[in-house]
Specification:
With 165 residues, the chain is an all-alpha fold. It is built from 6 helices and no strands.
């Protein structure tokens, strides 16, 4: 009788710096897009005075905090499992759904006049953080290619003498 060898899938652990850079990209993207959504939302949605979740400080802080939390979870998963990207996408989807509970349960009680437009804006902002974070973290090869291209472009520019006008 022959013996059967079972091999565990090999996994390569990503450098923390690479994960942190992608996480920072996701955080920056989430903050920028959500700030733009807030500005547009203020123009088209009747946001009650004193509704703190849609103040600029709250939007920036919550967007960045969500992306940082996603980055930490991704870094831990990368050290523990083989299919980090797939599991991260599933966890982020679950957390996104959970994060919508306070939008519909708590937000309407925070100020008089919180209407459907405000709730839609909050849902969009939650989705932006999830998509930006997961996209940046799980599509690392895209960011690596972009960085390599930028570095090679800079190197080529350094080799060329500056043209005088």
């Amino acid at each position: 009788m022959g013996t059967t060898t079972v091999r565990a899938p090999t996994r390569s652990v990503q450098p923390i710096r690479a994960i942190a850079e992608r996480g920072a990209t996701g955080a920056g993207l989430a903050v920028i897009v959500n700030t733009l959504l807030l500005v547009v939302g203020q123009r088209f949605v009747d946001i009650p005075v004193g509704f703190d979740p849609l103040s600029i400080g709250s939007v920036v802080t919550a967007s960045a905090a969500g992306a940082v939390a996603a980055t930490v979870v991704y870094a831990v998963l990368d050290r523990l499992v083989t299919e980090t990207d797939r599991l991260m996408t599933g966890i982020a989807s679950f957390v996104l759904i959970l994060s919508l509970v306070p939008v519909f349960v708590v937000a309407p009680t925070l100020a008089e006049g919180v209407g459907p437009g405000v709730l839609v804006l909050l849902v969009l902002m939650h989705a932006v953080v999830a998509v930006a974070s997961v996209g940046a973290l799980t599509h690392g090869e895209m960011f690596e290619r972009a960085r390599e291209t930028a570095e090679s472009d800079r190197a080529e520019e350094g080799e060329r003498p500056e043209q005088e006008s």
